[in-house]
Amino acid sequence: MRWVFLLLVMLNAFYYLWHQQEAPLRPKEVAPLSLYKSDKNDIQLLSESSAARSASSQCVYIGGDIQQGEARIIEQRLTSLDIQTQFGKRLDEAGSVFWLKVAPDSRRLVDESLLGGLKQDFPQLKSKIMSCEGIATAD
Asked: Which residues of 93-109 are buried (b: 16+ CB within 10 A; e: fewer)?
């Protein structure tokens, strides 16, 4: 058993010396990042890049699984804040879905705090930013 152990130690020593004689690998040289930079240094999301072009054609839609009376109450609240809205109804599998379209001119007045306050009063309320021609009505 002693001889097997000595044989393994000798093989390990031989293996170590054999690998030491190989030339070490050189790291691959990488071009600096400054060569790859274009004239735009900022990273932009797709929604941000298209927002500048189509900001005037984007509307906020507020609605969802709410009743018609609740939609009218929300419409009155927004109108009192000088936010122009348009009431609409859409038919789907579950029945009628009521929504309010906020005009692009008034979109800047609708922020997260306003929507958060409305969602506290109406938990089923949803909001989306879509194209102004995005929803087909039942009419």
From this structure: eeeebbbbbbebebbee
